[in-house]
């Protein structure tokens, strides 16, 4: 637990920091795998204690202000020190960008169009095109003022990033209003994304949305290689986190070390993709084999014997969740036959097997067959029959009477 300071002590500490400009800026790399290097750094502020050596962590530092004016003064000092310290990095890498956090709670009608950040950048010779303003939009109290702020700084060449998207009370409805250049996905969604299916699907949806609206997406808080690999598989190119580098002072920043990490990651990703392709090919063969096995056993079967035979087939393979048959219009003509050997436990009332006469004509597994494919396998999804993660194989077959139908097999994805 971080230490708590009394109101008087907090005020004295803040006065000392503001008068001595006692803010130290650390930089954390923001990387692009495609560019094979660091294209930006995030400025992270730390207070300097009286001894000149100890650093005051950000949570404690930003708890010191006791008024909006004190918070504004501290926030501006942090920005000033960030730009001033950043200049030394631009001497080596002129195209480098800097990401600066602005506390959205201080954005009001008086500060929205102030020239403060613009004046600092001009004074230090840093082009506004090289500055990313990071905003946690959920802290903004007035959407109209926030939009005015974003519009003003964008018109002056600054890039706008929404930070911590997906965390807490971040409002997705503000994305189309603010039209950010960058969306930073919060660590809470990236942590363990390699093993949590729901996180992977949420991040995938955010990536698809960002691609469609022309916004760069960045995964922050990446601490493990496997997290980065899954994000790359989703299509994310830009990253930030301890895996690529911890926050350090400008003189300690090692571009080459970060580049080596990226090179190693790219090598791992190639192997990862080849393994995924190999697994997918093997899985496709297994799916075809299961579909062929089931269709071969029911093709010459009399309609009156369907139920008994299909149920016995379903119970022979633990990978099969359920089987059902559709006519060419997508209407279910059999019951849904669940695998009774899997001891499926129903998840609440919303998950239940589709009954006979259910309409599947808009389902992902039906439309491709009507468009001309003979078989189709879906991406994994949550089954409405069991509430479990599954994939569906759909294939045409012809019954004993010569009627063409569609066999649907739901397979457990674990």
Topology at a glance:
Elements: H1 7-20, E1 23-32, E2 37-48, E3 55-56, H2 58-61, H3 68-92, E4 97-102, H4 116-124, E5 131-135, H5 143-155, E6 159-165, H6 174-178, E7 182-185, H7 187-190, H8 197-213, E8 216-220, H9 225-234, E9 238-240, H10 255-298, H11 306-314, E10 320-326, E11 337-338, H12 367-370, E12 375-377, E13 381-382, E14 389-398, E15 404-412
Parallel strand pairs: 2-4, 4-5, 5-6, 6-7, 7-8, 8-9
Antiparallel strand pairs: 1-2, 1-9, 2-3, 10-11, 10-15, 12-14, 13-14, 14-15
Helix pairs in contact: 3-4, 9-10
Comma- or semicolon-separated keywords:
about 425 residues; alpha/beta; TIM Barrel; Beta-Lactamase; 2 domains; six-stranded antiparallel β-sheet; 12 helices; 15 strands
Give a structural overview.
This protein is an alpha/beta fold. The chain has two domains: 7-253, TIM Barrel, CATH 3.20.20.450; 294-412, PAS domain (Beta-Lactamase, 2-Layer Sandwich), CATH 3.30.450. It contains twelve helices and 15 strands. It has helices at 7-20, 58-61, 68-92, 116-124, 143-155, 174-178, 187-190, 197-213, 225-234, 255-298, 306-314, 367-370, and strands spanning 23-32, 37-48, 55-56, 97-102, 131-135, 159-165, 182-185, 216-220, 238-240, 320-326, 337-338, 375-377, 381-382, 389-398, 404-412. The strands form two sheets. Strands 1-2-4-5-6-7-8-9 form an eight-stranded mixed beta barrel, surrounded by four helices. Strands 10, 11, 12, 13, 14 and 15 form a six-stranded antiparallel β-sheet that branches. Helix 4 links the parallel strand 4 (97-102) and strand 5 (131-135). The chain is elongated and about 90 Å long. It starts with 6 loop residues before the first helix and ends with a strand. The model has no long low-confidence stretch (mean pLDDT 89).
